Amino acid sequence: MTWSIYLGVVVQGVLTGLVYGLMALGLSVIFGVVRVVNFAHGEFAVVAMYAAFLLFRELGLDPLVTMLPIAAAFFIVGFALQATLINSFVGRSEHEQFILLVGVAIVILNGLLMLFGPDARPANLPYAFDSYAIGPLFIDKVRIYSAVAALAIAAGLFAFFRYTVTGTAIRACADNLTGAAVVGLNVKRLYAITFGIGLACVGAAGALMVTIADAAPNLGPAYTLLAFIIVIVGGLGSMAGALVGGVLIGVSEALAGFIIQPSMKSMFSFALLIAVLVLRPHGLLGRRA
Amino acid sequence: MIELWRGLEPRARGLIAGFFAVLLAAPLVADRYLVSVLTLVLYYAYVGQAWNLMMGYAGQLSLGHALYVGLGAYAAALLWVHFGIGPWLGVLAAILLAMAFGAVVGWLGFRFGVEGVYFALLTIASAEFTRIAFDNMGFTGGSGGLFLPYQRERLGEWWNLRGGQLVFYYAALALAAGGVVLAARLSRSRLGYQWLAVREDETAARSLGIDAFGVKMKAVLVSSGMTAVGGVFYAFYYNNLFPAQIFDIERSIELILGPIVGGLGTVFGPVIGAFILTPLGESLIALTARLDAPGAKAVFYGLTLIAIIYVRPNGVWPWLARLLGLKERAP
């Protein structure tokens, strides 16, 4: 029966990985278009976790529902942040953008610490420990729900970029900035929309994350790094790559945590990141720059 | 050194000599707390200088310099704890170990053309990988930490960095001053100009016959070796080492804020940056102590960073130098 245990671990890894992938998708979209590396990405995810946690504890609203208003709120925050602060840093050197977003990350992380303290807050959903029995496998309900939600959002985003005028315009900015400006696109506004979309992904992913992990401020830097690993492994700027990368990292962490020991699970992610950077810098699904 | 000194305008000579004299005499008037703050300032000035050589001059963005601090600290501390070998000898082992790791990271990055943000991620990944490895290694104490024993009878051995606050203050002052001199010399050397050429336009530099790979490797080696010396200081100053603290990405970020705020690619930028940021952090601790909200200090710190990078993207030093009537020879 051991194979079914391993299979179970892999399936859980895939499901968690899809939520990771949604978070990383936000980072990938922002970098692919605005060319700014969002070093505060994980911190935003944790803010969404706290929002979902509070809405559940105070009002009893399910994170799978509140995910949508949280994503909408995050869109507005992202739009405002890009329009007011980050737009003036576009095209400036990498270390300046880095300092700006590290500043944002520090403010968010410690703001959360001031408001909620350092302790982890479990959401305790009523169905948190329910599971479906599929053949010999037992799979957590919450993981299935959140994975399906993550896939649905990613599909919606894909359709947006493919079929809407705004989405096409944003892709044009990513492909050829000068050309986009020449044909009269309002690049700054499109950048703000893109940053908003990126944060909306994080907002939704963070709300989903509450169903499988406890909210704590110090998760921020860890999630930022996680998102980076996923995006680089999958290929920066590739939407499908972010999801594939997420699944890959989810599975490798689940297996490493199960076979070796939990404290070493992210070591494999970092080793994978180094290998991908060196051997295949455009990622598994990314296009060669 | 004498040539460097001669090359300065009289006004700069006066300011530098005055500043150094004040620092030398500071413990005479400053109380214990102030001396400890100044020690930290000088430590950050030194490690910031080491990072600045790689980023400010050679243009290679490393976000994993905690790796070299940690390796230096662990190398010297392990030699001291297990073999009784003092830091004056251990520092050599620390430098060599950090340079070996630096060579691996640099080789992977430069040989395979990993650039910009990607190179930065490579350095983060290397530091994090090492952090988790140290967490799980038995002979370094693992995640439980490594402690330098308190030995009363050795307290006078200043050459082994055993002693009171003053020993560490002057050690840090020596490091910071040495760092400034080294950076000044390097920035006016052949290698320094090659670094600038590679930073500004690597293709053009190569077409002039500069071995870009070799030049960048030298930058990593010099920077990692220098940073390791800072790590040795850290180990003997704090007497305890935890992988989760010393290799943490937060340490790497702390280390590079000074030179960025002070001014990248300038000799005095890292020093000025350290003198702005460390006292700022300390006074924020004092100001927000009454608020009883952990994190309040860091929130202000983050806001200050955003403000500084928004208003003075080139750092404070170029602006300050103009204010003081100095011209920093533009690198």
Characterization of the model:
Chain A has one domain (14-218). The longest helix of chain A is centred in the N-terminal third of the chain and has 33 residues, at 2-34. The mean pLDDT of chain A is 87. Chain A is mainly alpha-helical and 289 residues long. In chain A, helix 1 (2-34) runs parallel beside helix 5, helix 1 runs antiparallel to helix 8 (187-209) and helix 9 packs across helix 10 (239-259). Chain A is built from eleven helices and two strands. The N and C termini of chain A lie far apart (46 Å). In chain A, a hairpin with a 2-residue loop joins strand 1 and strand 2 (137-140). In chain A, 53% of the residues are buried. With 331 residues, chain B is mainly alpha-helical. Chain B has a single domain (2-323), classed as ABC transporter involved in vitamin B12 uptake, BtuC. Helices cover 73% and strands 1% of the residues of chain B. Chain B contains 15 helices and two strands. Chain B has helices at 2-7, 10-29, 32-57, 66-83, 87-111, 117-135, 165-187, 190-200, 202-207, 212-238, 243-246, 249-262, 269-288, 296-311, 316-323; strands spanning 146-147, 240-241. The mean pLDDT of chain B is 88. Chains A and B meet through helix 4, helix 9 and helix 11 of A and helix 6, helix 12 and helix 14 of B.
Helix percent band of chain A: over 70%
* Number of domain units of chain B: 1
CATH topology term of chain B: ABC transporter involved in vitamin B12 uptake, BtuC
Strand count, sense and closure of the main sheet of chain A? 2 strands, antiparallel
Oligomer: heterodimer
Order of SSEs of chain B: HHHHHHEHHHHEHHHHH
From the spread of the alpha carbons, the general shape of chain B counts as globular
The strand order across the widest sheet of chain B is 1-2
Q: Could you give a short account of the major beta sheet of chain B?
A: 2 strands, antiparallel
